[in-house]
Amino acid sequence: MGSTSAENSSPEGVGRRDLIKRSAALGLISVPTMSFLSACASGGGDDDNSGDKGTGKTSKDNPFGVKKGGGKLDVVVFKGGYGDEYAKAWEAAFDKKWGTKSAHTGTQEITGKLQPRFNGGNPPDIVDDSGAQQIKLDVLYKSGQLLDLAAVLDAPSIDDPSKKVRDTLIPGTLDPGLQGGKVVSLNYIYTVWGLWYSGKLFKEKGWDVPKTWDDFLAVCKDAKSQGIGGLAHQGKYPYYINVAIMDLIAKKGGLDAMKAIDNLDPKAFVGSDAAQAAVEAIYEIVEKGYLMPGTNGLTHTESQTRWNQYKAAFITCGSWLENEQLKQTPDDFDMKFMPMPNLPDSALPFEAIRAGSGEPFIIPSKAANLPEAKEFMRSMLSKEWSTVFAQKANSLTILKDGVSDGVQLRPGTQSTVEASKAAGDNTFNYLYPNWYSEMGTSIENASNELMSKRIQPKEWLKRAQAAVDKAAKDPESKKNHRD
């Protein structure tokens, strides 16, 4: 989901100096991440519009034939946790280089603004299709609206023309953009998901970072005794509590338990010991009253803001959280990321985290300015533009070694870098949210009922499995598989 429901703020690029170094920053993160992902991101088939060249002369420096001067580019960006200042800077650089005239739209109403344009055959040229009002990628793909990005990924890298663009990216980060074996969205931001806490609050209360579920519950219990919620979650958007449930399933049952869900296994949930243990663990938080009061009825920003006010010890989220909460976070809050604590007899170590790429950028197949759109996306995967993103949005991209020396990041982002280094090969990531959006929504709806105590774990498992079984009946599902 990336910054699924991220809102407001554009960061100011402050943080601890020398946090990210050329030799270390994305070096920390470009360990063999998600090495188990089976889908072959180096394939992708033919670009249906590969012959749709511009009127400029093609070369290694201009592989798509962008004509200098007079060209146009229509860019629509989800203005959420990462803001849209980075995109404005990109567009200015692109216009200066190519003499184009870029039109910029920053919005959270992606579906509202763009669905009519897709339906009318006049979509933008490049879109950051994210947020709560994202147009589902599988829906766009099935209706023939997405360009196969193979031509962009196989083009020469701007930084090193001897390499293809795809060979400059962190391993596995293209996989979430796969639909039917083709990369049709570029998930641009390197993201981790898990739990977050205040270093200041933990220090004041004498709490240690819990590595086991029992220790996690002990912190929640102590917090409750002091009038503080144990766990906050973004109740109106149950995607977030599924971060906890799905992390626990993967860590308890290992990669096989995760792949069973992505592969629509008839025992993905019902009959899975890992899934049962995970959902029972989350329900225990509800039963013992460890949820932050009122959290089930709050939006993501409302719940996160109360957490920033020290009304809860933990909250679930992805690594866009820090940017999203800039205005609400006290200066001495000391935001920290941690992996999901382990259930007993977990197959993966505590350090294992869900990590991968988020924030999907797409090029509509019917875009009016395809050469410019392709060149813009190729430029996004240059070190110059990746560094601009790190400076403006306080986050890392999927480009290896993609940040120049001296870029400053905030404490929360620093802690995700450290967590990624500690995880090493022990990272995982689900693909079902992009492959089967209807299934994902059904599981989220079940989680909403669970957190409100309207259903119990056994019924949650039954509903989740029904969603899997329904997705498996779609003939298109056979095109997606992980080994």
Number of helices: 17
The helix-and-strand class reads alpha/beta
Distance between the termini: 22 Å
General shape: globular
Mean pLDDT: 88
- Secondary-structure element sequence? HEHEHEHHEEEHHEHHHEHEEHHHEHHH
Strand content: 5-15%
Unreliable spans: 1-51
Main sheet, how many strands, which sense, barrel? Answer: 9 strands, mixed
Count of DSSP E strands? 11
DSSP helix fraction: 25-40%
Q: Report the C-alpha radius of gyration, rounded.
A: 22 Å
In short:
With 483 residues, this protein is α/β, with parallel strands linked by helices. It has helices at 25-29, 85-98, 110-120, 137-142, 150-153, 199-205, 213-225, 239-262, 273-287, 300-308, 321-324, 370-380, 383-393, 411-423, 432-435, 437-451, 457-472, and strands at 72-78, 101-107, 126-128, 178-179, 182-183, 186-198, 229-232, 312-318, 335-338, 353-362, 427-428. It is 38% helix and 13% strand.
Descriptors for this entry?
single chain, 483 residues, alpha/beta, 9-stranded mixed beta sheet, 17 helices, 11 strands, 13% strand, globular, disordered N terminus
Walk me through this protein's architecture.
- This protein has helices at 25-29, 85-98, 110-120, 137-142, 150-153, 199-205, 213-225, 239-262, 273-287, 300-308, 321-324, 370-380, 383-393, 411-423, 432-435, 437-451, 457-472, and strands at residues 72-78, 101-107, 126-128, 178-179, 182-183, 186-198, 229-232, 312-318, 335-338, 353-362, 427-428.
- The protein is globular.
- The protein contains 17 helices and eleven strands.
- It is of the alpha/beta class and 483 residues long.
